[in-house]
Amino acid sequence: MFFQIYHSAFLNFMKLVSAYFLRQNLHMDSTHSFTKYQNDLAGIARVIAHPARIAILQYLSAVHDASFDYILDDLELEPEALGVHLKELENSGFIRKIKQDEDFHYFIDTLSWNKCKEILMGFFKEVPKNNNRCD
Questions:
Q1: Does 3.10.50.30 match the CATH number of domain 2-25+35-125?
Q2: Which domain of life does this protein belong to (predicted)?
Q3: Burial of 10 by CB count in 10 Å (0-12 exposed, 13-18 middle, 19+ buried)?
């Protein structure tokens, strides 16, 4: 249920993104030159596109930092899947890890988090409100 809600929210987000680009008459092909902002926004969307990654980010936001084993126990993911998702989040800059005792602890990188938040909020401010009609 938890994942379904966030997956549905993400699909709605992607529909908004697609509709926005179509309204702007941008042709999305390999020859189109996208702006840094558009590439950054797409990168963020790609990283958070998986419900497991959203769950990991929410979990780390709530507990501040956690070891692999704690995340594994609480989110009940397969170890291999968790490793892949943590690595993707780490490579994208959403999270960082530090070695504590014999374990690595993961935590949200607040500077990257705030930058992503700024990009997403900026995008949603750009989309026209109450523009549900076709012209």
A1: no
A2: Bacteria
A3: middle
